[in-house]
Write a structure and sequence with these properties.
The protein is an alpha/beta fold. It is built from 8 helices and 7 strands; from the N terminus they run H-H-H-E-H-E-H-E-H-E-H-E-H-E-E. A hairpin with an 8-residue loop joins strand 6 and strand 7.
């Protein structure tokens, strides 16, 4: 343990800044108090890990068509990013509650009252550029999904650490798995959200600049330069 009080104070300050960047800058405190996923400004965000959200937030999804198992805050987030979004839900009251919050020109929420109707809903309107699996019957949803993907498609599976079966289905279909482990909105634990990429995935980014929330400006002079001999 460091005994120098000045050094110890600096190190403790780093702990405080790191906590602030997660709890405040990422919106974790606001999400936890609200009981649903929002950012620091109170805007809806997907209920996935922050690392996965940072990756997906950089993607340019202009003109893309998305299907979503499970509607909610993510639906309100994605509706401004894609050309068309179809979500499937099994709870009539939840579907009714979401209707005033969606853009009907972009979003359709389907009500499915049985498991087969729910999992097979992805086949209606296929192929899809992006499919998000974050609802019920995930293994069977994944089996339908792999038959309904457009060239270059992306599949997002949440809670991969809890649901290895749908992850195996997606891998067996030849998709490349990229795992994003870490904290996310409202929860006190960490989990895994995974992106499954087609081998010809068409990843277009909104910006070449990666700017994480709570990030630091790049140091100058650059820290990767080889030392100049004295």
């Amino acid at each position: 343990m460091e005994r120098n009080p000045l050094v110890l104070a600096r190190r403790l300050s780093r702990v405080g800044r790191a906590a602030k960047r997660l709890v405040v800058d990422e919106g974790h405190a606001r999400s936890a108090l609200a009981g649903h996923p929002v950012d620091q400004q109170g805007r809806p965000v997907p209920w996935i890990t922050y690392a996965a959200a940072a990756f997906l937030d950089r993607l340019d999804l202009t003109g893309r068509r998305m299907f979503e198992y499970g509607a909610g805050a993510s639906t309100m987030y994605w509706q401004s990013r894609v050309a068309q979004l179809v979500s499937v839900e099994n709870d009539p009251a939840w579907v009714e509650a979401l209707q005033p919050k969606i853009d009907p020109a972009v979003v359709t929420i389907r009500l499915a009252t049985d498991a087969e109707q729910y999992t097979a809903s992805v086949t209606d309107g296929a192929p899809w550029d992006v499919v998000v699996i974050d609802g019920l019957c995930r293994e069977e949803a994944a089996r339908h999904t792999v038959q309904c993907l457009a060239p270059g498609a992306i599949v997002v599976l949440d809670n991969t650490d809890w649901f290895p079966e749908p992850a195996a289905v997606l891998r067996d279909a030849g998709l490349l798995e990229v795992d994003f482990a870490g904290p996310g909105p409202t929860k006190a634990y960490q989990w895994v959200t995974s992106a499954f990429l087609s081998r010809d995935a068409d990843l277009r980014f909104r910006s070449d600049l990666i700017a994480p929330k709570g990030g630091e400006p790049a140091p100058y002079p650059r820290i990767d330069r080889f030392p100049t001999p004295a």
